[in-house]
Amino acid sequence: MVADGSARIPAEIAPDTVPAVTLADVLRCLEGDRDLDPARRRELCSAVRSVCRALSADPALIAAQPHQLRVRLRDVTAAAAGVGKGRWSNIRSLTLKALKRVGIKAMPGRYREPHAPEWEALRDLLPNRHFASGLSRFMSYCTACGIAPSAVDTQTFKRFQEAFEGDSLLRDPGGMVRDTCKLWNIAVATIPGWPRVTVEVPVRLKRFVLPLSTFAMCFRADLERFLARGADPDVFSDSYARPVRPATERTRRRNILVVATALVKSGISADAVTGLATLVRPENAKQALKLLLTRAGGKPTGYLYQIATLLKTIATHYVRADEKTVAELRVICSKLRPAKAGFTEKNKRCLRQFADVNKLAGLLTLPQRLLAQADRGDGNRRREAVRAALGLAIGIELVIPIRAQNLTGLRLDRHIHRAGKKVLLSVPADETKNENPIDAELPPWLTRLLEAYLKRYRPRLTLAPSPWLFPGESGSRRSAGGFGAQISAIIAEKVGITLTPHQFRHLACKIYLDRRPGEFETMRRLLGHKSLETTMRFYRELDGVLAVRRYSEFLTQLLDETMVEPSLEPAPRRRRGERGHE
């Protein structure tokens, strides 16, 4: 026991000496803390055990250091933990208090003590609540550390960042610190009497690709010539090449810049990269791809193979390299070709979530629930409209699991058609990845959701005329990445699962093949695959899981038919000299 009456982790397992202190150690110390009020002990222990249940892990396997615990809790929502938002917030707060009680350094998620008078006087100078909320945590930190406004310097902000990144459970401490620094600098520039200390705003982006302006003008011109080769639609022209889609052009541009950047970062001057011919020289290609392979963890990936194949294509059809060069690039491609595999571990984890039928039910009913919440309203008209839009998008993905680019590219004047009371969704072949058209009739429940969205909510999303089904605030098309992130976030919040728009395709196969084993042809048509082999390559594993389940059910039935339950009791031991019956 120490002066403040709190229990401490024994020195032999103290976090400063052995970093592998676990939540089991925390629970053991709390239960042995006789100076702790029994009700408070139960409260703290309950919070720690709730965290363990939310992580589906034994307390002895969960590190108790806040920065390690934060990583594991980052994607756990209240819905995933099976509790309400308020309760989950309390659980996180009480867990921090439990860590602090046993002697582990922990920063509070929210300070309860008032600011020092000099900090409160500065806070009164701030123009609005946005500034006050954004700088409040820094002011509280300085108050707790006894730092006056006049004593703040760049090192103060550095220690502030280290404290919250190392000792708090904030989901995004880096973002909080960045926002704090930005608001502080604005206050320095606009508020008389504010401490005249300007701080550097942390840069969170880690860019690998160098800007195109880094390279010589001749390289940039050669790149543009290569990308423009498919722009001549005249099949009788000498410069004709099969037109490529804008997305393909963007991908090729970025991949070429990735190779050029890797070549520069491996030791070659940017000025020496004079054209695409420089990139496809076998020694340069190997050097660049070796660096990219190291960044990928030394394991060939589909992305690396795509880049190597692009280099080979450039050498063959654009640079017109000799056969020896093309042959060497062909060998490089073969070495970087990843082994054919089905699901990645990420997708397997995604589908495992749906072993819980309640999670699947929660997702299937989410579109209607989101519309109902929008109908009830909370006074924020735009928030209600966004909620309805996300509900409609999730409903479309459940019925027609299209790619995110096609989802955000849906237009009212091109893709949504009415035939009496029926609504059809149609995407032409030239707008899909596999050049297979998408034609589907929306079920009645989704039609009703669409009509409610168009009538009551879509007009709130934009004031400008727009053809897009899901318009941005200015009436422009939404980006696939941003809209997809919103969809994933609302699913995590409301259902408690991690699911990206693309993973709706995997989910569709799982729930259909669960009930229709072996019907890959239906899935091929639904997903728009050109080849049945493609569908089976990716989803054959699902059939394997079902095979184990079917055999298990068969075995259970066989045991029931024998009407003999296997005994779990050990056979009685014979006494010495006792003989069994022959």
Description:
With 582 residues, this protein is an all-alpha fold. Helices cover 57% and strands 2% of the residues. The protein has 4 domains: 11-101, no CATH class; 117-190; 212-336, no CATH class; 345-497, Orthogonal Bundle (hpI Integrase, Chain A), CATH 1.10.443. The protein has 25 helices and 3 strands. The protein starts with 22 loop residues before the first helix and ends in a 20-residue tail after the last helix. Mean pLDDT is 87; it is low at 1-6 and 11-19.
* CATH-defined fold name of the largest domain: hpI Integrase, Chain A
* Helicity level: 55-70%
Beta strand %: under 5%
* Beta strand count: 3
Poorly predicted tracts of residues: 1-6, 11-19
Number of helices: 25
> Strand-and-helix sequence, N→C?
HHHHHHHHHHHHHHHHHHHHEEEHHHHH
Described by the principal axes of the CA atoms, the overall outline is globular
> What is the domain total for the residues?
4
CATH superfamily of the largest domain, please?
A: Intergrase catalytic core
What would CATH call the architecture of the largest domain?
Orthogonal Bundle
What does the largest sheet look like? 3 strands, antiparallel
Strand order of the largest sheet: 1-2-3
CATH class of the largest domain: Mainly Alpha
Kindly name the structural category: mainly alpha
- The pLDDT mean sits at 87
Determine the N-to-C terminus distance.
68 Å
